[in-house]
Amino acid sequence: MYRPIMSEYEETQYCLIQQWKSAEPGIIAKALDKVTAPASWVLEKIIPLQGIKYVLDSANSIAKKTTDVEKLKNTAAVAEIKYLRHKGLSISDFLAHDIEKWALGIAATEGAATGWAGFTGLVIDVPAVITLALRTIYKIGLCYGYEGIEVWEQDFVFGILSAAGANTIEEKMAALTMMNEINIVLEEESNRLMGEFAKKQLNRRYAVMTVEKLAKQLGMNMARRKLMQALPVISSGVGAAINVWYINEVVAAAKCSYQERWLIDNQKVMR
């Protein structure tokens, strides 16, 4: 069977994808994890799971509704977003870079603004940064030809969010495994053009990242990372820095995940 040959650029990007997948969470994640570990039991008491689930559902709904598909189609000069799956990886990467600059700019501004309010500001900041993270993932997905608006695509988006927010290599590997399993089902759905079938298969055959599971991980990890922001004296600078760092992690996870999906769909690499 004929398989398209990867270009030098694609080979370089594929190597970077593999490096990201095998890399442990960064020094900042580990440092914050250690610093805030003693307060974990307190955070579990003051951050209800149902509250995080509500925030996640609301943020996801807002993110999907505020993803400007028409603007990207005009920028990329395509009639349909799906055509970007075959326009060239470098073109998609260029579009994604613009999304990265947009997201990091908002992250810095929003983090500094809510940081002045200390602990009270966290009530505003956490939902806002989760919404920004999801908007960023959806927008980057568009750059590679994936709209992510269908129900069965949501689990892939949540997997990216989970991988980006992982505090341990085990959490990251669990998210990547789940995303790979979802990709297999999405391929089946694409071949059969049967969305409902794919959804049923996804739920029955694979360990799907449910909203509840993600909420538990996301709520604790996000709260622990932003605990230092509750100190009013240093909160503004810390809030901006942590938001920028976190969104940068989200961007990396989204770009690598959609790059790999693009390469697989174009038969440049085997799953």
Structural summary, described in words:
By secondary structure, the chain is mainly alpha-helical. It has one domain (25-265). The protein has 12 helices and no strands. The longest helix is centred in the C-terminal third of the chain and has 34 residues, at 232-265. The radius of gyration is 19 Å and the shape is globular. Mean pLDDT is 78; it is low at 204-209.
Structural class: mainly alpha
Helical stretch tally: 12
Percentage of residues assigned to helices? over 70%
Shape, principal axes of CA atoms: globular
**Domains (count):** 1
Radius of gyration, whole Å: 19 Å
What is the number of strand segments?
A: 0
Largest sheet geometry: none
Strand content: under 5%
Mean pLDDT: 78
Order of helices and strands: HHHHHHHHHHHH
Unreliably modeled segments? 204-209
Calculate the terminal CA-CA distance, rounded to whole Å. Answer: 15 Å
Short description:
The protein has 271 residues and is mainly α. The protein has one domain (25-265). It contains 12 helices and no strands.
What descriptive keywords fit this protein?
271 residues, mainly alpha, 12 helices
How are the SSEs placed, and which strands pair?
Elements: H1 8-22, H2 27-36, H3 40-46, H4 49-65, H5 69-76, H6 89-115, H7 119-143, H8 151-164, H9 169-192, H10 195-205, H11 211-225, H12 232-265
Helix pairs in contact: 1-12, 4-7, 4-11, 6-7, 6-12, 7-8, 7-12, 8-9, 8-11, 8-12, 9-10
